Amino acid sequence: MQRVLWIGSPFFGAQLRASGWQDVVLHNFEDDRVFSWEDLVRLAGFTPDVLVVADKSRPPFVLGVENFPCLTVFYSVDSHIHTWHPFYAQAFDACIVSLRDHLSLFSGPFLDKDRLWWSPPFAWEEDQPDPEVQTIWDCLFVGTVSENMPLRSEFLRALGGQLPGLHITRGSYRQLFSHGRVLLNHCEHGDLNFRVFEALGCGGCLVTPRVGHGLAELFVDGEHLVGYAPNDAGDALFRIKFLLEHPEVAAHIRAAGLAEVNARHRASHRAHAFTDHLCDLWSCGYECLVPQRLVRSEAVLEQCLRLLYLHWADECGNPDIRRAYLAAAKGRYGLAGPES
Q1: Which end of the chain has a smaller Cβ tally under 10 Å, C or N?
Q2: Alpha carbon distance 267, 295 (integer Å)
Q3: CB neighbours of 232 closer than 8 A, spacing ≥ 6?
């Protein structure tokens, strides 16, 4: 296999090393910056054969992708809150999308459906049951509750009023999940979130909303997890009470959900699937993709990227990055990259 540079949130990037890649360099960052091709080559220490730009739920941080000389892949996770993702994706040779029902949004003038792949969330390898921990709470919710999440706040308020054993907290879910007899999930934006897989990977009996995005294809309701009508506290209450009153059913669901995650939904599974997709591109003559993209790079900039860059120039408070976005809108890159 080839050499890959993965920039952005690591996700399953580290697991690529076990999938036969020659070199894998991961580069995550937390400060505000943008990257040009020269910056990326310097970070990798080599000229990558494949570049993966992985969602960090922040503005576009790699500029000039439409002109890059290697195979490029965009990894979109938060398309439910970032409507600009499908436009940015047009500059890439391929794209993996976490939310299955959004795949059609990414199919556009420069990125056809054959180069779009569904890559669902997954459980991390560190998500494991802790059989030594004693349960404390009947029902446990671990996550953010704030005024920015009105549906979640109201749902938990209504449910908590009828379920005294509901415990709501924040913190390390890996340390907390084993303390709950039933684990509760909520999806503010109707997305299939990572918490589904994390909870199952930790061996929890999960009650989660039926959100779509392939949830019913990945897991069997009543076997691997228990679904409720989104934002319906009464429906969730009925199912939670049933599980608390029938601990043998909850135990079966815990075991079945964990077994399903172990068999199909760990980070290593996503890394193998990604590698298979890239191998398919190679077998179909991927060497044509890069030259074809380079020929239409000006059209990609004009039709998909220019307004995107101008928007983020207006939104950006960092003057150096603002200048980089303005330059990118004119097709000029490499003006505000990071220091090595």
Answers
A1: C
A2: 35
A3: none
Euclidean distance between CA atoms 186 and 196, whole angstroms: 9
Strand partners, 24: 4
What CA–CA distance (Å, rounded) separates 201 from 198?
5
- Rounded CA-CA distance 256/127 in Å is 16
Tokens of residue 242, six digits: 């049933």
Question: What size, in residues, is the chain?
Answer: 340
Query: Using CA atoms, how far apart are residues 7 and 15, in angstroms rounded to an integer?
Result: 14
Instruction: List pLDDT tens digits, range 173-225.
Output: 999 999 999 999 999 999 999 999 999 999 999 999 999 999 999 999 999 99
Question: Which single residue is written with the structure tokens 């990227």?
Answer: 305
- Is residue 255 classed exposed, middle or buried when 0-12, 13-18 and 19+ CB atoms within 10 A define those classes? middle
- Secondary-structure breakdown of the chain: helix, strand, coil percentages, each rounded to the nearest 5: 45, 15, 40
Gap between the Cα atoms of 79 and 57, Å rounded: 9
Q: Determine if the pTM surpasses 0.85.
A: yes
Closest CA to 97 of 112, 117, 124: 117
Q: Alpha-carbon distance 107 to 112, whole Å?
A: 5
Q: What is the dihedral of CA 127, 145, 33, 315, to 10 degrees?
A: 150
